[in-house]
Amino acid sequence: MEIWINPACSKCRSALSLLDAEGAGYTVRHYLEDPPSAAELAEVLRRLGLEPWDVARLGEPVAAELDMESWPRDEASRERWIAAMAAHPILIQRPIITADDGTAVVARSPEAVRSVLP
């Protein structure tokens, strides 16, 4: 499995600690330094079963600069959201775990992290 993290994020550090405690094998992706492409982000959203606005961090200054709160949340605007998140990965909710079985989860709680463990 792969986990997208920001090392400065306490939820990310907690998720890593839990994975380590459970002996899980995983790869860390520092997504701010190695941002996902729009295609990768679209695939992860498909695996999550979510829309881009569901995982957008709208409290970030760049979201305010882009006025994302006012953007439509519909199929016609989906690519705009994904493009913004690919260009500004700080907008992506974290941590995200992509599991080997094809599932993915926004791992902000211990329960979410455990949900992808075998």
UniProtKB/TrEMBL annotation:
UniProt cross-references to CDD domains, sorted A to Z: ArsC_ArsC (cd03034)
One Pfam family per UniProt: ArsC
Going by the entry's taxonomy, the superkingdom of the source organism is recorded as Bacteria
Q: Which UniProt keywords apply?
A: Oxidoreductase
Show the InterPro entries listed in the entry: Arsenate_reductase, Arsenate_reductase-like, Thioredoxin-like_sf
- PANTHER family associated with the record: ARSENATE REDUCTASE
The identity of this protein, by name, is: Arsenate reductase
This chain's source organism reads Microbispora siamensis
Which gene is this protein's source? arsC
